[in-house]
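Hey team,

Sharing the DUF3224 domain-containing protein run so nobody has to redo it. Sequence (111 residues) first:
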Amino acid sequence: MNLNGRKFVMVSSTASVVDQDSPTEFHYQESDGVVWGSYTGDTVTHGHFVGTRDGDLVSISYVHALKAGGTAGGQSSSRIEKADDGLLRLVEEFSFDGDDTVHVSVCREVA
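Structure output:
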């Protein structure tokens, strides 16, 4: 379940409508249980995250610049699942700093 070198795309989110033509892409790195990476696409010009993985649970903090201007950041907790095709899915609960609303997104691994 190591995430090192894996790429994911967002397929759904309760926080916004996902642009299916240009979904947010996430690039993961992992070493010794520490995860980090970057993301871009959809409403995000560039973003970065850092956190930890313990078994199938990933906990991160993130920050990104928005195409509309400004920044957003927060925390998330993702559950790693293996899909029927053998690729991974990340089912994530996240919240933005300053907002207690918990959102849910799903990302699928790109082969």
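Residues 7-109 form a domain with the Lipocalin fold (CATH 2.40.128.30).

Ping me if you want the raw files.
A.
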